[in-house]
Specification:
single chain, alpha+beta, Arc Repressor Mutant, subunit A, five-stranded antiparallel β-sheet, four-stranded antiparallel β-sheet, 11 helices, 11 strands
Length: about 325
């Protein structure tokens, strides 16, 4: 019995099939059936319909379907929901500290809006006027050129496997160091961007905060990515940061449902202890976390590590001292 179609109408599925094969060639009929949640017979009918409509489908030597290079779809039409999703994404990028990201996000937003039909554009405008991503966000004043372009240059280095040399500030030692790295990926944590890269100085994969890179230069020299390296798998293991801390907190059970979605990390364990809920996770920036905890007042206490207990106590004392 055929599986239910998870992708909506057949027209939507045909359009999605073209996009999928252009971005992931060599997919088999079974791959496509699993992706869309339909039978292989349905996929064969879809592929025949695409061929009859002029889409240049071929079966590759590798054993899957692909679309001949150079084929282009008609101009892309966005639904109101799709347009809203894209524009919310650009608004998030406009909150970044890197000036080039903010400028590029603004340009992308204008281009998207310029091709939207009037009705959808008005819908998106109403949504934008009534959507706030972070009401308390404030950008630090940047000197001319500071941080500008780092994210884009590093994203190119990651995509093109180019080596990078940089001056990196190590906060724990208050020291400026020279690094030669192989960029493997970019990760956004709660309050900053990080570069995951193989560090030739330490001869291991390390985590570098973009806001601590003083100077950098992308080389023309290429590198080979480590065999089997997967960024998501790495982050789920020991790679969350170069100096992660095991965090253990205790929250009042009454407030925890509200707190849970705000914890700035993936929760590793969660336990009910009477009228308390204990959670475990790893986090890099103890100073940030100590300040974040203040918003929950007496409804939270730090169990571990001791360094965070001290930071939390100092943060609370600094507020008391003002009165």
């Amino acid at each position: 019995m055929p599986k239910s179609d998870k992708q909506g109408t057949r027209t939507e599925r045909l359009f999605a099939t073209i996009l999928l094969l252009q971005n992931r060639p060599n997919m088999t009929s079974r791959d496509l059936a699993d992706h869309f949640g339909v039978s292989r017979r349905t996929i064969f009918r879809d592929l025949r319909a695409l061929s009859e409509s002029g889409v240049p489908l071929t079966y590759s030597e590798g054993g899957g379907y692909e679309i001949l290079e150079g084929y282009q779809l008609p101009p892309l039409m966005l639904t109101a929901r799709e347009a809203a999703t894209l524009l919310v994404g650009t608004e998030f990028m406009r909150l970044q500290s890197d000036a080039s990201l903010r400028e590029d996000a603004g340009e992308v937003s204008l281009k998207i809006r310029s091709v939207l039909p009037r009705e959808i554009r008005e819908y998106v405008d109403r949504l934008s006027e009534n959507t706030v991503l972070d009401p308390y966000w404030s950008h630090a004043v940047q000197s001319e050129g500071e941080e500008s372009g780092k994210w884009f240059k590093l994203s190119e280095a990651v995509a093109r496997s180019r080596k990078v040399i940089m001056e990196y500030f190590v906060a724990s030692r208050q020291e400026l160091t020279q690094r030669r790295v192989d960029p493997l990926g970019l990760v956004y944590y709660t309050d900053h961007w990080n570069l995951i890269a193989f560090d030739h100085l330490r001869e291991e994969i390390r985590n570098f905060r973009l806001d601590r890179i003083e100077e950098m230069f992308v080389l023309t020299e290429r590198f080979e990515r480590p065999d089997g390296f997967d960024l998501q798998t790495y982050l789920e293991g020991e790679g969350r940061s170069s100096d992660p801390h095991a965090i253990q907190l205790s929250f009042s059970a009454a407030v925890f449902p509200r707190v849970r979605s705000q914890i700035p990390a993936r929760i590793d364990d969660e336990r009910q202890r009477g009228d308390k809920v204990e959670v475990d996770f790893t986090f890099e920036n103890l100073g940030y976390l100590a300040g974040w905890l203040l918003r929950f007042g007496a409804d939270v206490s730090v169990i571990a590590p001791k360094a965070l207990v001290e930071r939390h106590r100092e943060a609370a004392a600094s507020i008391v001292a003002k009165y």
